[in-house]
Amino acid sequence: MKLFSKNMKRITAAVLSALLLCAAPLSYADDTVADMEAKQTELANKKADLENKISSLESQEADKTEYLTLLSEKIDTIKEQIDTANSDITVLNTSIKKLEKELSDSADQISDTMELLKKRLAVLYSAGCTVGTLEILFNSESLHDFSMRAEAVSTITRHDKQLIDTVAAYMNETKAQREELEKEKTALADAKKLYESSEEELKQLESDNTALLEQIRSDKSSAETELSRTEEEEYVLANMMSAKIAEMQQQMAQAKATPTPTPVPTVEPTPTPTPVPEEEVDDNGNVMPTPTPTPVPTVKPTPTPTPVPQPSYDDDYSGESFAWPVPGWTGVSCAFGNGHYGMDIPASRGTPIVASRSGRVMTANGSDDWGYSWGYYVSIYHDSTYSTLYAHMSSVAVSEGQWVNKGDVIGYVGDTGYSFGDHCHFEVYQNGTRVDPSQFV
Description:
Helix content is 55%, strand content 12%.
């Protein structure tokens, strides 16, 4: 059954992965790298929440399992106590029945003794003894008769008294024993009722907690499935980010390959000389004055602007080191790890934040103060391997597509987005994956 469950999980994960891979181009095709970074952060936070939830559910599952084990042990103990009580009650019932038989036998013995006594009295009566013992003796007709009567009365009295006393004492003792056993039986019966009541309560607790345990396991299974789906989506997104960055690199390489036009110097045109008109003579032979020609304005051609050279996307800065992004503030309030994918550097509001390396600004969000939880933030593409992100700014000092050099101010420390105090959240991406910034700065 466990093997089947594991295989089903693997099949489910494979199907989810295939679905996500098919859907990814449609989902992320129009997203920018910044959008993907934000989605990556969202997935990372979701993954951390799910892992915490699963950890909590596992703890609850362990507690409930342990509690159910204790309940089961208590139920077994109470069942043993009930069985013992039933056994003791059975023994007592047997003893009580035995005593009741003995009491019945004693009563029969007393009854027989009484019958014997009656017969003896009848003998005395037939002998003429109708009065008390003294009368029986004094009414004897002879000494022999007196002696016989005295012996008979003495024998009857002594023997019957002993017999009656013995039987009566035995009956009293047996009755006392029976009463004691009845008390023990009653006490055991009461204890048995308590045990049975406790057993019912424990069984109800066991049933309730078993249902809770099943719910916990169901919730854990759902969370594990969701975590698996999130991890698959995270994996697909990372691949899409790598593809997007590769596409950007290709575009930048093409931009670099396009030659920058060489400015052509402007040549001033040579002015055409104005011809001198010949002198004109009137009819009288007089030379007429030469009219002054109206000057034609010379139009100069518009000079071709000299292009200002800009650094290309792929200027080689691969050997450039990283600089600390918040000069003068070297403390770290929260390091990389445990679901935190950057380094938090606390500083006063308005403190300048500088580019850690030279590169081109990919994203400059200075209008959306939430900004995927980063608030106002800037991301910079450095080369085919590295890019950086600076979040929670109070304001942004650059624009998208702008080239910045290492150490240029790109924004100012703030508390926008999902933040608890003024600081700069600094991230380093290596081949599209966030890595610990402390190994670079």
